[in-house]
Amino acid sequence: MLNLELIGRRLxxxxxxxxxxxxxxxxxxxIAAYGFQVAFVKAADVLLTLAFxxxxxxxxxFLILTLMARESWLTKTLLVVLTxxxxxxxxxxxxxxxxxxxxxxQVSIEYSEVYAGFRILVGRLLYAVTDQVFGSPLVDxxxxxxxxxxxxxxxxxxxAQTVHAIRRxxxxxxxxxxxxx
Length: 181
Prior knowledge:
Helix content: over 70%
Number of helices: 7
Oligomer: single chain
Radius of gyration: 19 Å
């Protein structure tokens, strides 16, 4: 039997992690650039170097929790597939944060070694996949699709999590209102 409640909870947790990684890197980069006069590209290198392993540990933790859970094999399989399918969009979230920060500070993020390394690594992965699936490499199209998909997944998951939090807050009884009656 499929545990839709657990799947929904894990997708909500994914949305929180995606949004936190994006905003955390964006805000930390802007604070470093404007508050401490650090070159944004250097701050981006440090932030991405910290964000990628941290997100990797989080993904590994979700996989371990999933595999150890007392759930049906169908629920576990779906959660593992979702985790693997959403891994690249999750890793894209801090990259999107530094891209936004580079835009705000009006610098070129292409000078970031970690950003360039990420693009090269993902480009190689996309090349291998598109070459195997389509017979001819469509790396530019695959890269554009990955960027769009990752941004859309992150945006939708963040909005869904925000709407869920607002609904939860609006449905909670107000203790001050009940005391005044």
